[in-house]
Amino acid sequence: MVNNKTLEEEASSLLVYSFKPKQEDHLQNYTCATKSIIAQYVMDRTVRLFVYMPPIVSISLNKTLGIHEGEDLTLFCNYSSNHEVKELKWEKMFQHESQLDERSPYLNIKSINRQNAGKYICTVTNLAGSASDNVTIEVYYPPTVHVTFEDSGNNKQLNCRAHGEPNHYIFTQWEHRSEYSDLIRYLPDNGSGKLILPNTKGETDRHHDRGFYICHASNNVSLNGSNSLIRGDFFFKAQGKPYFVTFNNNTQYGIKDQDGNLTVDFVSFPDITNFTVIDGDIKHYKDNYTLETWRVMDKVYNKTVFVNGSRLVISMNIRNENDFRSYTIKLSNKFGSANFNISLRSASCPETPEIMKIIPKENKVIVQWRERFNGGFPQSVVIQYRRRDVQFWNKIPASDPGMHTDYIDGLTPGTEYLIRMYSKNIRGDSNFTDEKLIRTRATEDNDNENLALMVLVVPFLLANGVLYWQYKKGNLKTLERICCFKRQQFIYEVGVGAVENNVNEMQNNVEQHAVAQNAVAQNLDIPVYSSIDRRANLTIGQTVSYSTTPKRKRNYLEKSKENRASVGQAIGTVNSATRKGPDRLSYIELSFEPKPNE
């Protein structure tokens, strides 16, 4: 009986109940009861059933987990068991099972890599049995990319092979570059990482499309923030007949009675087997030459690039004018031959360079220029300059003829300079350019001084103009006469005439002073401010103070025996004197004070 439910009955002395325990039977109470008819009592016995069950194991709800290469991974084996666990183990499924040395529920993998990808199993064992769960780990990493080449005669195909996780890829356009990584052109991808090389007339048949071909593939996985596009490349070692690069000179130069050279750059894979110099019907100059591997410049698909080539230099002695003629150089290898024509001319001095622009600064000048024909030999350019007031020319070499920009440093600000240029080679010097006159810029200090001077002078001139205008209108006349009236009273008291404070009027003042003395002797009324009104030399708007304190001064008027006026300096002081005796001189001092602001 379980939970008051009778499971089985038997009227015999033996009762056997058989069943297969289930999980829900665990810890259930089972009771066996007997009832005697004679004794009229019940006997029972109860037992509790303990069911030993296998463990329940779970790792993850998702059976597949993805992780980027280099990250840390932790797996947890979550299990339950109603009795003691005898064993817990992790396994990784390879082609052959491999047991991991791990006994804890946690499996930790530091900095996981692509070799750690696969299926992981956790197994738990107790007395009732074993249970397990598994999870598949996918390690994501950028692809490795390489390029393969297929030549099927007319078609030449390049394949961009990528291997990464996940294995879904994006391909970008192809790049065609020279041996020195100079970009030649871009080529479209068909979306699957394949490229069929087009046959371009005038290009493929000349240089045979030799060079690096580069593809880029991505599965959108990047490590440490790096670019997810991974590069793969292939060097196409095309072979064919030799060809001359586009930057060879068809016109070359030499000097009579000296050794000269015929120089050509070319590309040949395989190496040339023979070369010939043809002068009309004559074949010569094959014994005196140099041939070496060279980094040559060429124009490929309208791009100027450096390619791996060779330079052939053929030496010759120019004996007379007849050696200045046309020559044909013929190169041959096992695929064919190529010709190049050279016209040898007599060399000359270089042409005069041209000054394009001069930009003056405070302490330097920027000179922009361009070179002209070099006369057949390498040329150097020289810049000359001097101050306008100095005859000696300074000179500096152009730093880099290819830049066409140079600086003249160490100049004096606000100074005029003359600048000219010329070129030279082994044949001689060119003519000078026209002399350019420039002026360096003044320093900021001079500009500030000029500005300060203007700030001080302009208000002063404006103030004087306003005062003069007011005076002309008569607005200052009354004030002027009041100032002079005090002066008139004092003059009558001491008996001397007024003297104008103007050195330029000295002679007139002396005459007026003599007249004034005569008038004083006759007791006449003299308008002593008439001269001030006439010339307006007294400072307008000032008051007058005076002193008559006797002082001991030497009387120079006695010696001159003439009545003269002593004219004071332009500081507002006027001294006048009358004859009192040989050693005693009385004089007055007038001072003009500024008028208080109204």
Task: Report what the structure shows.
- The chain has 6 helices and 37 strands.
- Residues 478-553 and 555-585 have low confidence and may be disordered.
- Strands 4, 7, 8, 10, 11, 12 and 16 form a 7-stranded mixed β-sheet that branches. Strands 13, 14, 15, 17 and 18 form a 5-stranded antiparallel β-sheet that branches. Strands 20-27-26-22-23 form a 5-stranded mixed β-sheet, with no helix packed on it.
- The chain is elongated and about 155 Å long.
- It folds into 4 domains: 22-238, Immunoglobulin-like (Sandwich); 249-346, Immunoglobulins (Immunoglobulin-like, Sandwich); 354-439, Immunoglobulin-like, CATH 2.60.40.10; 476-594, no CATH class.
Write the layout of secondary structure elements.
Elements lengths: L27 E9 L4 E9 L6 E3 L5 E5 L4 E4 L1 E3 L4 E9 L3 E3 L6 E4 L8 E9 L2 E23 L4 E10 L4 E2 L2 E4 L5 E5 L6 E3 L7 H4 L3 E8 L11 E7 L6 E2 L6 E4 L4 E9 L6 E6 L2 E3 L4 E12 L2 E15 L8 E8 L2 E11 L7 E7 L4 E6 L9 E8 L6 E4 L7 E4 L7 E10 L2 E2 L6 E4 L4 H30 L3 H18 L11 H16 L8 H6 L6 E6 L8 H5 L28 E6 L4
Parallel strand pairs: 4-11, 20-27
Antiparallel strand pairs: 1-2, 3-6, 5-9, 7-8, 7-10, 10-11, 11-12, 12-16, 13-17, 14-15, 14-17, 17-18, 19-21, 21-25, 22-23, 22-26, 24-25, 26-27, 28-29, 29-32, 30-31, 30-33, 33-34, 33-35, 36-37
Subcellular location: Membrane
Protein name: DSCAM
Membrane topology: Single-pass type I membrane protein
Q: With helices defined by DSSP (H or I, 4 residues minimum), what is the helix count?
A: 6
Number of domains: 4
CATH architectural group of the largest domain: Sandwich
Strand content: 35-45%
Rounded to an integer in angstroms, the radius of gyration calculated over CA atoms is 58 Å
Stated plainly, the CATH topology of the largest domain is called Immunoglobulin-like
CATH H-level superfamily title of the largest domain: Immunoglobulins
For the record, give the distance between the C-alpha atoms at the N and C termini, rounded to a whole number: 129 Å
User: Which percent bin holds the helix content?
Assistant: 10-25%
Largest sheet: 7 strands, mixed
Which structural class fits the helix and strand makeup? mainly beta
Number of strands: 37
Mean pLDDT, to the nearest integer, reads 79
Query: What is the CATH C level class of the largest domain, in words?
Result: Mainly Beta
Uncertain stretches: 478-553, 555-585
Which shape, going by the Cα principal axes?
elongated
GO molecular function: cell adhesion molecule binding
InterPro entries: Cell_adhesion_signaling, FN3_dom, FN3_sf, Ig-like_dom, Ig-like_dom_sf, Ig-like_fold, Ig_sub, Ig_sub2
Protein name: DSCAM
Domain Fibronectin type-III: 349-443
